[in-house]
Amino acid sequence: MELSRELEAPDVWDDPDRAQKLGQERAGLERIVTTLSDHRSTLDDAKDLLELAVEEQDQDTFDVINEEIMQIVHEDVPFKLNIVTDENYNIGDYVKLFELQKAPLIRATLFQNENSTKLLLDSHHTVGDGLSVMIMINELAALYEGRNMEELYIQYKDFAQWQVDHREFIDTTEEKEYWKKNFENYNPIKGKIAGFNPEETEVYAGNDIDEIITDTTLLNRLNKVAKDNRTTLFMVYFSAFNIVYSRYTASEDVVIGTPLHGRNYGGLSDMIGTFANGLPLRNYPYGNKTFAEFMDDVKKTLIGAINNQEYHVNEVIQNLTSGQYHNTSYLFDTVFTMFILDREFIESDNITLEYEDDKTTVETQKMRVIVKILPDKTNIKIKYACDHLEKNMICRMMEDYKKVLEVISQNDSIKIEDISLDMDIVQDTKIIEADVDFDF
User: Fold this and answer.
1) Whole-angstrom Cα distance, residue 138 to residue 149?
2) What is the rounded average pLDDT for all residues in the chain?
3) What burial class does residue 164 get, using C-beta atoms within 10 Å of its C-beta: 0-12 exposed, 13-18 middle, 19+ buried?
4) More confident site: 105 or 414
5) What CA–CA distance (Å, rounded) separates 116 from 85?
6) Are 308 and 178 in contact (CB under 8 A)?
7) Which parts of 144-243 are beta strand (E)?
8) Is 203 exposed, middle or buried (0-12, 13-18, 19+ CB in 10 A)?
9) pLDDT at residue 109, rounded to an integer
């Protein structure tokens, strides 16, 4: 207060050196106060979370109350493990739709015979996100090995309640303006792999294709591209896919979604739940840019999106459309995900636990690209809505994606327009519009 009064005095700038010194002292005090305030806020948040924490293991269901989807917490829900001993089984027969009003929203089936043992875990996406699957696998391995599990003081329902209670106190004005500016002049009709239909339910019949890259020379070169450009492998693979996607949609203005784990508060890193928020990343792979230049642009876009992730993608869409739409398909119909794993399976003296992804039969996006980076190989899977996209096109897209990776691994200074792909694709699919806006 005393420093502020001195600085506000009319004659303070008669002595510039003294005014500057007073200003520096006030700035230093303000930083200290702000730091203390931030620590106090963090402690208060942690205290609120701990106060909400309970020890019982509840199960959740969902229902529509007053036209809103509400989570309903049950104190006790019976859980049954189905056991199948028949060797001639089809895992797909045991994957069924969930009714959100009926608990539990996770099912388990054990397939056990003389040759192998498989555990099928089938859960609704409201139970957990992709990272939750990895957490669950690690916890299963720990239980098999007889290791003690750390007590879970905070459960997902506690975090959800805390988030609801604190939502109104979080100022998202800057985030709202960021996304509004980011999507100025956005046209939801163009730049999508299979068009835009606001009436779709976003649940499609699904299929997938896989590719495994074991060429260590190529993988090492891609690592070098990331290192030379001081960026990550995600940026290299994602930027390369943007180029492919741009060609197939005939647009230099493309939006691809990518999920963030959303566990931004202490105590949430090992919690199973749905935290992931899909970030809509709008990029412009203009032909006159080099790959390295474009990758730098993508990095800036991603950093901006991460810094403004508190404003959820559904809120972004509702704000952009004045509440007319809320589905993510308004902004993107393709999602890109990457996992970097130090091992493909969990192995110890007592158990070998390997994750096996079943064949896709249901998909929530028109297309989903999943890249898994392992020490000695890279797995690429493209899941797609088979009623909207042809398998031949998806297979060609995979080949073109591998070609782009090969080209940029050898020369990251190549211009995008000089990366040659099989553009015959535009002749035999219905995904390209007549009034294309393309400049390759």
Assistant:
1) 11
2) 76
3) exposed
4) 414
5) 10
6) yes
7) 204-213
8) exposed
9) 84
- Give the residues across from 64 on adjacent strands: 69
**Backbone angle region of 230, left / alpha / beta, with phi > 0 → left and psi within -120 to 50 → alpha:** left
How many other C-beta atoms lie within 10 A of the C-beta of residue 217? Answer: 8
Collapse the DSSP code of 32 into the 3-class scheme (helix H, G, I; strand E, B; otherwise coil) and give the result: helix
Which pLDDT band, with edges at 50, 70 and 90, does 439 fall under? very low
* Fold of the domain built from segment(s) 171-427: Chloramphenicol Acetyltransferase (3.30.559)
- Phi then psi for residue 129, to 5 deg, are -95, -170
Buried-state track 85-111, b at ≥16 Cβ within 10 A, e below 16? eeeeeeeeebeeebebeebbbbbbbeb
> Which one-letter amino acid corresponds to residue 392?
N
Q: How many Å apart are CA 369 and CA 276, to the nearest integer?
A: 16
More confident call, 373 vs 264: 373
The answer for 408, left when phi > 0, alpha when psi is -120 to 50, beta otherwise, is alpha
Rg of the chain taking only CA atoms, in angstroms: 26
Closest Cα to residue 243, out of 407, 434, 424, 429?
Answer: 407
Q: Is the dihedral of CA 326, 332, 334, 337 positive or negative?
A: negative
**Residue 117's beta-bridge partner residues?**
112
User: Residues 6 or more apart from 373 whose CB is under 8 A from it?
Assistant: 233, 338, 339, 340, 341
Residue 79's closest CA among 111, 112, 122, 118? 122
The 10 Å Cβ neighbour count of residue 118 is 15
What residue type is assigned to position 269 of the chain?
Answer: S
* pLDDT score at 384: 92
d(CA 236, CA 291): 9
Predicted TM-score of the model (pTM): 0.71
Tokens representing 298 are 């993508």
What tens digit of pLDDT does each residue of 287-302 get?
999 999 999 999 999 9
Residue 406 dihedral angles phi and psi, to the nearest 5°: -65, -45
State residue 334's pLDDT score. 92
Q: What are the start-end ranges of the H helices in 102-197?
A: 130-144, 156-167, 173-182
Query: What is the distance between the alpha carbons of residues 239 and 295, in angstroms, rounded to a whole number?
Result: 6
Mean pLDDT over 384-405 rounds to 94
Q: How far apart are the first and last CA of the chain?
A: 62
- Rounded Cα distance between 210 and 391, Å, is 12
CATH 3.30.559.30 occupies which residues in the chain?
171-427
